[in-house]
Amino acid sequence: MISHKPAVAAMVAFCATLTLAAQDITTADQYFQQVSDRYAQVTDYECKLAITAGKTAMVGNLIYHAPTLLRIDFAQPSGQVIAFDGQILTVYVPEYRAVLSQSVGSNTGGAGASLATRDGLRMMRRSYSAAFESTPEAVALEGSGGERVIRLMLTRKTVAEGFRTIIVSISPESKLIRRLEGLTLANERFTFDFTGLRINQNIPETRFIYDSPASANMYNNFLFNSDDTKD
Predict the structure, then answer these.
(1) Cα dist from 187 to 53, 119, 122, 141, 183, whole Å
(2) CA 51, CA 59: separation in Å to the nearest integer?
(3) Rounded Cα gap, residues 97 and 95, in angstroms
(4) Residues 167, 132: Cα–Cα separation, whole Å
(5) What angle do CA 59, 64, 70 make, to 5 degrees?
(6) Which residues contact 209 (CB under 8 A, 6 or more apart)?
(7) In terms of DSSP bridges, do strands 98-103 and 217-220 run parallel, antiparallel, or are they unpaired?
């Protein structure tokens, strides 16, 4: 009689190996949760920010303090400033000597804050489905000189979202966002590059205070009337 014990033992070992391997697999949603958890530990950060929209390029220094303080001082276009204190969004456009001010209600969910924040990631996880763009392995980030990232493809769950898809490039060592690429409903592509990121620097809140030039023209509630932000 031929013993089947070796075959059975091999099958059991193979199944055990598959089980262990399955336990080591991280899904895209689980990985995105890990990134979100990482940002929950970030109290503030500072970095260089580069924004491209079509042929338009903007470069500046970004500071952020949880949960809502944000300021970007641009070198390109020179002198332009965006500041958000949790209630008022202020944009200074030196070309027109104009200060644009917008009251932001609580129901906007911090619209002035960057997507690369704790609340921004929470919003994205709620509103978008995550998948690895092509592979769960790190790949070269285009135009970065060989830097490698994990790339997640986020697809909107409802038609209410402004971006049809968002590609999130994440540094695998730090689990911090290196690049965001958003595609709008009109097929316009926006790219946000975060470089030189320094987290938890105890940035004082005074750095977020913006005093507009006395000679600038003021335009209040340039996006919508503040009453429109209320239910």
Answers:
(1) 11, 26, 24, 22, 6
(2) 6
(3) 6
(4) 9
(5) 75
(6) 85
(7) parallel
Return the SS3 of 56.
strand
What are the angstrom distances between the C-alpha of 192 and each of 88, 154, 182, 186, 226?
23, 15, 9, 18, 28
60-73: b (≥16 Cβ within 10 Å) or e? bebbbbbebbbbbb
- For the 27-229 domain, the top CATH level (class) is mainly beta
Where in the chain are the domains? 27-229
The Cα 189–Cα 205 span in angstroms is: 33
CB-hemisphere CA count at 13 Å for 7?
A: 3
Q: Cα-flanking dihedrals φ and ψ of residue 105, to 5°?
A: -75, 165
- Structure-block tokens of residue 105: 């209600």
Q: How would you write the pLDDT of the chain (231 residues) with one tens digit per residue?
A: 555 555 554 454 444 444 444 445 789 999 999 999 999 999 999 999 999 998 899 999 999 999 889 999 999 999 999 999 888 899 999 999 999 999 875 444 333 335 788 888 988 999 999 999 999 999 999 998 889 999 999 999 988 788 999 999 999 999 999 999 999 988 999 999 999 999 999 999 999 999 989 999 999 887 656 554 444
Length of the chain in residues, anyone? 231
What is the C-alpha separation between 155 and 97, in angstroms, rounded?
39
Tell me the C-alpha distance between 25 and 110, whole Å: 34
